[in-house]
Each structure stands twice: as structure tokens, then as C-alpha cells.
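Kindly go through the entry underneath: sequence plus C-alpha cells. Please state briefly how this chain folds according to its C-alpha cells.
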Amino acid sequence: MDNGSNGNALAKRDDSPAGRLHMFLKPRLQSLGQYVAGRVKPDVLIKLALLEFSKSKDLQSCDPGSIYAALITSAQLGLEPGAAKGEAYLVSYRGQCTLIPGYRGLIKLALRSKAVKSLYAHVVYQHDEFAIELGSEQRVVHRPALDVDRGPIIGAYAVAKFENDEIDVEWMGVAELERIRNASPGRNSGAYRDWLAEMYRKAPLRRLSKRLPLGDDFFQAAAVDEAHEAGKDIPRVELVENMSEAEVVEDASGAPNSLRDKVRQKAEGQ
């Protein structure tokens, strides 16, 4: 028996919270790859999750299975989680990790559909110069205040520009933004606590998108986002006996994915 070899193996074992999460996620790398859409890579998703996990005590209290489930959602949507890009965020809620699409992620998915030439959203502060015209000739003028203190947020807007250079605009005042926030169970923590301006940008973006001919991947992301706002615990992972890597994920609408169909067929003996 080589006690020295065993000792070296034990010495190399990383028993930190991030190390234990890595040991949980590493065997699931290949399984995660089957969900990947767009250009995201499963190994990059895991690295980003470990980075966010190492910085957040809230995430460190989450069930590892829920973190893996959030990465599956991230892979399916083709969005990279993390504050660096702002495409999506890993957020702790009731001890479970949930993926929340960011406004940059929603814009990325909208532009992927080629239905609009450009799409953007901004928050407006009290000291900004701002004017908006609706009706037959829509127009937005927004000149951010150059002072360090721009004052409190007074609203947010989104603009879609089409190939013919026509635009569509959605404006929401701060009172309406606050009503949406107050209806969310996570109004005082998580995404609203850490990324308030980004969360406010998404509200007019989601409303505007309902008038746009966007792709299914955008509306899937918007459904996940709205479900979180409503306090639904998504995504959810169920472990199914006797199936290799049988992580089963339901979206906000309860629609089955292909793996869940396979699980059902196996259970029914098909």
C-alpha cells in the first residue's frame, strides 16, 4: 500500500465550496453539452458558474443540482451567465439557483432572429435630458447628464429599429417599474439588489418584444424571466432512477424537453 500516493491525492483534493461544486459539475460536462445552443461551450459555462459561485455567499448556499439546472437553461438559451457580459445571471432564491436572463441576453436573442436591425434599452435619471414622442412619428431624445450624480432613476425605455429604419418605442415610468419590482418575491435581494438598472431596462424591453416578430428562443428566455418575477421556482431538476445523467428540466410553462420525453417513455415501457 502506497501511503505516500494516497497522501498526495488527499493533499490535492480541493475541499473548498468552489472545489466541491467543481467536483459535482465536472462529470456532467458531456451531459451539459447536449443542451448547448448558439456558440456557448459547456466548459465555459462551468468556469463562469465557478467564478460567480466563488464571489457570492448566496450561491454558495444553493443546492448544487439547482446550479447545474441553471446551467442547462443557460445552455439551452445560448447565454453566458455572469456580470461580465450581463447576458444572464445566476441568482439564489429559497436555497435554489435560478438563471435570470439579463437585458443584454434578451437583446442578443432578439437580434439573432433578424426581425429587427437594432434593439436597445436604457434607464433615465432625473438630471438627464429626455424627451419622447409617440404616435405616427415616434422619436426619443436622451442626453445623459455628464455630472457624476445623475439623480434617481425616473424611468426606462426600449427602442426597436427595423430594416426600413422605422422604430417602435416603449416607455415605463419609475412608478410602474416599482410595481413590477414589488410584485417579485426577490424584490429586496438577488438581481434587484445587485443589478437594479439592468432589471429596470428589461421591463420595457419585454413589453416591447410582445409586438415584435421575434424567434422562439427569445420568448423562451422572456418566459423564464417573467416566471422568476412571479416567484416560480425554475428551473427544476428531478433525478430519475436507472437513467444515466437523467437530469430533467421543466421551464416556466411546464413544457417538456426532449430528455423528459425520453424519461416518460422509459417509465411507460415504450
